[in-house]
């Protein structure tokens, strides 16, 4: 016997009964053995949410800075799918579990009572036991895109596209890490509070989000 169930019902049932969608895969190499946690795509491209903090999506992208010598950094951002509001950001040298967790700590500082579904890709930091244990401590269900399926996290992909084309490409390359941090901070402010969207009735992400307050 089968029946249709919405994302909210599935999420609530999983939380109520302590069900985790983790499938433990052991990977071996010549240097060390580590465990990787791979989760199902529970979000299933249900991107339009009716309330804030139902689903948070996240990802990281590479940027460069430096005046004479180019340096690389990773920018992490967490979006609430309700209004595509950027809750937090973080910059790190590489994509690590600690950097990802710090980004979430900043998001939970904004929304301390939230227990959203978290949707990510299957990057090493998101598959780590450290990150998944962290999400479990926050009572969050983890959903993951399949490898090579960027459309399964398309709102985040679109945000990165705007971030690079509308913002980064129209500003001079930051010379220092401090300048990069200010530039990313400016991008968050712009996309949250200044850019209006026809899909949100001409409201900014912040104005749209405040409707749910």
From TrEMBL:
Record Gene3D superfamilies: Ribonuclease H-like superfamily/Ribonuclease H (3.30.420.10)
Alphabetized Pfam families for the sequence: rve, rve_2
Coiled-coil region list: none
Annotated Integrase catalytic domain residues: 48-213
PANTHER family hit by this protein: TRANSPOSASE INSF FOR INSERTION SEQUENCE IS3B-RELATED, TRANSPOSASE INSO FOR INSERTION SEQUENCE ELEMENT IS911B-RELATED
Protein's recorded name: Integrase core domain protein
